[in-house]
Amino acid sequence: MLQLTDVNVHYGGIHAVKGVTMHVSPGSIVTLIGANGAGKSTILRAVSGLVRQCTGSIAFLGRPILGLRPHDIVKRGLTMSPEGRRIFPNLTVKENLALGSYSRTDRAGVADDEERVFRLFPRLKERISQPGGTLSGGEQQMLAVARALMSRPKLLMLDEPSLGLAPVLTQEIFEIITTIRNEGTTILLIEQNAFGALSIADYGYVLENGRIALEGPGKELLGSQAVQGAYLGARVGVV
Amino acid sequence: MTWAVFAQNIVNGISLGSLYALVAIGYTMVYGILRLINFAHSDVFMLGAYMLFYIDFMFRLPWWLTFVLAAVLTGVLGITIERVAYRPLRQAPRISSLISAIGISFFIQNLGLVVFGGRPKPFPVPQFFSQSYMVGSVYMANISWVVPVFSGLLMLGLTMLVYRTKVGLAMRAISHDMDTSSLMSVNVDGIIAITFGVGSALAAAGGIMWALKYPQINPLMGTVPGIKAFIAAVLGGIGSIPGAMIGGMLLGMLEIMLVALMPTLSGFRDAFAYLVLIVILLARPTGLLGREFREKV
Ligand SMILES: Nc1ncnc2c1ncn2[C@@H]1O[C@H](COP(=O)(O)OP(=O)(O)OP(=O)(O)O)[C@@H](O)[C@H]1O
Ligand SMILES: [Mg+2]
User: Fold this and answer.
1) A239 has pLDDT over 50
2) Per CB distance under 8 Å, which residues of B are interface residues toward A?
3) Is residue B111 scored above 50 in pLDDT?
4) Could you report the per-residue pLDDT of B260-289, keeping only the tens digit for each?
């Protein structure tokens, strides 16, 4: 569904992503984990069309998307919920969601999806006319995911949806992500919480200094020595 | 001052203020989205008046149609300015756009001097506007109520556009966060173009009404009203559309009242506007309605 081949990204002099090849197959949850600064967000930003200095090839549904502008990529069914939520604090919850469905013209479908996100995140419904900036951190995160869903993406990319959430809420977010996938949306998930992400993922990639260091089915990575050592807190030579 | 004269001054203040407000909106919208002071805006104001002058001269269409054409064409011009002078610099440091804005402003003024000539041209004022009546004990020309009423309608329309439509929602979104807006499938360049188009059309309307009030136009006519409108935008809180409207009305009213109450100071009416600017910048740099939005991280 999404295929990255030998993708490189430069920020000025910094070579942030080095020859990354990745694949996301339809109906799966794929996760990308790695330390701070490994280049995870950069990869998603490249796929979304937000970074300019990107080489290699990125194809979505068999068609190249590298070089397209971000809004055209969204229209093809590939939506990202960016790192740090980035909701619009001055706009209401309803307006934030309306931006999610900005380019859609199927009113009935949009109404259905609004129902759907309120079913997934009942708390947002209670706060529908509140400015986004007045929501709690957890509610803002839910709004960010809900807003991305409003575009009815075929592939949803989430950049650290559990960032700053309490354990209970983190658990809830992972469950919701699984539900979203089960309802037919493919997911590419970036996480610091490697355990949570690998537990729900069909396939995982481990990124180190801009390179894919390791890849495999989620359960396998969860059991691997290297991943346990570096990301799951087992105290063996943590860098 | 008699009540009649006082009332006359109020009307004048509203009239002048609504023109400042119309032009201030353009400054504030562009600033709100690009954090750029569009110095060329005062020249767009001037171009609006010339646009009407030449369309009228060449085609002799009904006046309202001439007006609409002039406003629309000036809007297109505003979009062109953004396209050639600002869009290529979108990723560059902000100071580059600012310098480009100053450059384009000088360019338009000097091109105006060459193309239109430096000699002021008599602006065609339909008889309707200059017709006046005795109201109580003062004379009132139609133009005195047409300007505020029409400006008010335009501002109402703009408010509806910004707060009630999808395009307006996108404008408010990109003024806060362009990248994230583009992830919401908003065509950021397109919305910026619309913003320049709308702001420039409003400036054209302002320039044309200004010319109806002072029917001599010249290529530098935009400078002073442009600066005043900019001050009005800062006064109201730059970036805020209601702020620009209130700032414009307030500045126009203050200026007229200064002249009315202290006629000996009337020569300082322009200096007075700068004084207002300095006072705001010192006392409340965010203006009356401007505010910083706290973000949760
Ligand atoms: N706009 C930028 N300009 C210059 N360097 C950047 C920019 N954005 C990211 N980088 C650099 O690129 C590298 C990868 O950053 P990236 O944000 O992709 O990491 P990440 O894996 O998402 O980290 P985290 O887990 O902390 O979010 C880092 O070294 C970072 O400093
Ligand atoms: Mg990141």
Assistant:
1) no
2) 91, 166, 169-170, 172-173, 176-177, 179-188, 293-297
3) yes
4) 988 888 888 889 889 989 998 998 888 888
Q: ipTM value, please give it.
A: 0.92
Q: Residue A174: CB partners within 8 Å, gap ≥ 6?
A: A162, A196, A197, A199, A200
- Strands A186-191 and A203-208 turn out to be unpaired
| Strands B138-141 and B132-135, sheet pairing | antiparallel
Going by pLDDT thresholds of 50, 70 and 90, the confidence category of residue A182 is: very high
B293 neighbourhood in chain A, CB within 8 Å? 89-90, 133
Closest residue by Cα to residue B174 from B78, B23, B35, B21? B35
Task: Give the CATH superfamily of A1-77+154-173+186-232.
Answer: P-loop containing nucleotide triphosphate hydrolases (3.40.50.300)
Contact B169 A98 (CB under 8 A): yes
A102·B188 Cβ contact <8 A: no
- Nearest CA residue ID for atom 31, ligand 1: A37
Q: Quick check: B166 and A88 CB within 8 A? A: no
Please give the residue that has the higher pLDDT: either A224 or B38.
Answer: B38
Amino acid at B7: A
Quote the DSSP letter at residue A92: B
CA nearest to A84 within chain B: B297
Q: CATH 3.40.50.300 in chain A, residues? A: 1-77+154-173+186-232
